[in-house]
Design brief:
- This protein is about 10% helix and about 25% strand.
- It is α+β, with helices and mostly antiparallel strands.
- The chain has two domains: about 120 residues, Jelly Rolls (Sandwich); about 160 residues, Lysozyme-like (3-Layer(aba) Sandwich).
- Strands 1, 2, 3, 5, 8, 9 and 11 form a seven-stranded antiparallel beta sheet that branches. It has a five-stranded mixed beta sheet with strand order 14-13-15-12-16, with helices on both faces.
- It is elongated, with a radius of gyration of 23 Å.
- Bound molecules: zinc ion (ZN).
- The site of zinc ion has 3 residues, from loops.
Length: about 350
């Protein structure tokens, strides 16, 4: 029996299109994705699949993302830019227990095609691998690449978000395209909606529907761009699901949780932030810090990334106190000793400041 396990690449016919909100889909001989069978074999570095040179995606790129089905974890992916030196870059694979995976690689930024390979790293049984899509994008077309700071850790996977109204509560539509995974955020960006300053929960739910429609139908995005919406009453609404790539800070969406304050905190409207609203934003931040170990100082305003009024002259000055409020006391290495009143030392987070 032949050790070489590669079967034919099978294409999923679909027109090239924009993938997600910032990627350009990569096609191989005009087809997107690939499917190939692999067989268990001797543990050698066998090439299971080779795409050949892809079609040239538009524009420069430095990041390649693929996603699909990987029933056996012992398949590695690598890619290179054809033409130059033969430098295969291994993609970091993120595979879920159910076999769904995505993988990512970083390259020198320039235009041109790519070539993708799958390599055996100890396949246990015959099966089929599917790459649904491959996309490339420039991580930072108009700003230097922001290096991911080390997670502050320890992250607490069990941390739960503060009480909020899930998508179903406001009648969210489904995303118009599959959202790209972005499972380990390391920064947060504050926005304002530059829209209605809502005065009731019902009005906020309605405004969320509007913003989603505006983003999907107006801007042509897959979904509402932000991950969380916070109204002046302090209600938190779920936006684009956490763990998926946002669409709120152009060129800097990766690893970036978008929180939007409903209202226009800038001239001429000059809406005022409220204590309840800031408290809710702080609670969200504490959750993100606990869950992902991100640095409270990673909280920025949209205007820190590009020329924009967002989040408004009245909300932007709140960032320092929000950063302080994001700070979660580290879990002590040993159990806390009882404090002065005999209660266990609590890890109460910083109190939200009042405002107006
Ligand atoms: Zn913004």
């Amino acid at each position: 029996m032949r050790a070489e396990a590669l079967a034919a690449a099978l294409v999923l016919a679909a027109a090239p299109s924009l993938a997600g909100d910032l990627g350009t889909e990569v096609t191989f001989a005009s087809a997107r994705g690939a499917r190939f069978a692999v067989q268990a074999g001797p543990p050698a570095p066998r090439v299971l699949f080779d795409s050949g040179d892809s079609d040239a995606p538009a524009g420069e790129w430095d990041v390649l993302l693929i996603q699909g089905e990987l029933p056996d974890p012992s398949v590695r992916f690598m890619a290179l830019r054809p033409g130059g030196a033969t430098v295969w870059v291994e993609l970091a694979v993120h595979r879920r227990a159910d076999g769904r995976f995505w993988a990512k690689g970083r390259f020198q930024r320039k235009a041109g095609p790519l070539r993708l390979r799958a390599v055996d790293a100890g396949i246990a049984a015959d099966h089929e691998v599917t790459v649904y899509s491959a996309e490339v994008f420039a991580d930072s077309p108009d700003a230097p690449a922001a290096a991911a700071p080390p997670a502050r850790g320890p992250a607490d996977p069990a941390a739960v978000p503060p009480a909020h109204h899930a998508r179903a509560a406001w009648g969210a539509r489904a995303p118009t395209n599959p959202l790209s995974p972005d499972p380990m955020p390391w920064r947060v960006t504050l926005h304002h909606s530059d829209g209605r300053y809502t005065a009731s929960l019902a009005e906020s739910l309605q405004e969320a529907r509007f913003i989603q429609e505006f983003h999907q139908d107006g801007r042509g995005w897959s979904d509402v761009g932000y991950h969380f919406l916070v109204d002046p009453l302090g209600n938190i609404l779920e936006g684009r699901p956490l763990g998926t790539l946002g669409a709120h800070t152009q060129s800097n969406n990766e690893g970036n949780v978008g929180i939007v304050l409903l209202g226009s905190y800038h001239a001429p409207k000059n809406h005022a932030t409220t204590a309840a609203q800031l408290a809710s934003a702080a609670a969200l931040g504490r959750f993100l810090v606990a869950r992902f170990g991100l640095d409270p100082d990673s909280l920025k305003g949209h205007r820190d990334y590009k020329k924009t009024d967002c989040p408004g002259d009245l909300a932007y000055p709140k960032l320092p106190e929000l950063r302080r409020a994001f700070d979660v006391p580290r879990a002590p290495a040993i159990a806390a000793s009882p404090d002065w009143d005999g209660q266990r030392g609590s890890s109460s987070a910083a109190k939200p400041t009042t405002d107006r």
